[in-house]
């Protein structure tokens, strides 16, 4: 269903870089990120999945690969991106989180991060950013500025209605395209 909605939105607006977030932890945003990436790649699209949750990364666990080197190593140490990329399928690559910095906000809001996302977007059909939850860490707001659209994952019984509505308001008002399920 998500992939079908993505096609609908893509027809009227180029949606290439997609931020996947939630209101709070444990709502399934990382699982949605992984499944969306795999589905798009199975349809023949080249996809880069970036684990930008530098507080609690999980993509390396989902895909059973190493967490390092990864995104933080590229941004902090100038490591070539190719060293951090894990090829999961012929059309799906993962950039895991890497070593966890003490304060990820300056790293993810840097010009280096913006240039990195632009560079990756020029090489892939889709870039999926698995971000921290909106109401827990400020990084999702910063990463939203790099995205063409946001998918807000909401899991019943995990988040209260007021928090979900606040996250939705931010999502709708802060990015070019809000992708709804």
Structure report:
The C terminus is likely disordered. The protein starts with a helix and ends with a strand. It is α/β, with parallel strands linked by helices. Helix 9 links the parallel strand 6 and strand 7. The longest helix is centred in the N-terminal third of the chain and has 14 residues. Strands 3-4-2-5-1-6-7 form a seven-stranded mixed beta sheet, with helices on both faces. It contains nine helices and seven strands.
List the defining traits of the structure above:
single chain; 181 residues; alpha/beta; seven-stranded mixed sheet; 43% helix; disordered C terminus
Query: What structural class do you assign from the helix and strand content?
Result: alpha/beta
3D shape: globular
Cα-atom radius of gyration? 15 Å
- Proportion in β-strands: 15-25%
Count of individual helical segments: 9
Strand order of the largest sheet: 3-4-2-5-1-6-7
What percent of residues adopt helix (DSSP H or I)?
40-55%
Q: SSE order, as H and E? A: HEHEHHHEEHHEHEHE
Describe the SSE topology.
Blueprint: H1 2-12, E1 17-22, H2 29-42, E2 47-51, H3 59-62, H4 71-77, H5 81-84, E3 86-87, E4 92-95, H6 104-108, H7 111-123, E5 126-130, H8 139-144, E6 149-153, H9 161-174, E7 178-179
Parallel strand pairs: 1-5, 1-6, 2-4, 2-5, 6-7
Antiparallel strand pairs: 3-4
């Amino acid at each position: 269903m998500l992939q079908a909605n993505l096609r609908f939105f893509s027809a009227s607006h180029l949606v290439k870089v997609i931020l996947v977030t939630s209101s709070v932890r444990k709502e399934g945003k990382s699982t949605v990120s992984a499944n969306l990436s795999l589905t798009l790649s199975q349809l023949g699209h080249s996809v880069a999945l970036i684990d930008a949750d530098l507080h609690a990364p999980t993509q390396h666990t989902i895909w059973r690969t190493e967490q390092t080197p990864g995104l933080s190593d590229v941004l902090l140490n100038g490591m070539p991106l190719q060293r951090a990329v894990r090829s999961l399928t012929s059309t799906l690559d993962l950039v895991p989180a890497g070593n966890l910095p003490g304060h990820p906000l300056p790293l993810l809001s840097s010009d280096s991060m913006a240039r990195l996302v632009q560079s990756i977007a020029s090489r892939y059909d889709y870039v999926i950013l698995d971000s921290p939850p909106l109401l827990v860490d400020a990084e999702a707001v910063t990463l939203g500025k790099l995205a063409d659209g946001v998918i807000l994952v909401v899991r019943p019984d995990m988040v209260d209605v007021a928090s979900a509505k606040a996250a939705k308001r931010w999502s709708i008002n802060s990015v070019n395209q809000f992708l709804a399920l």
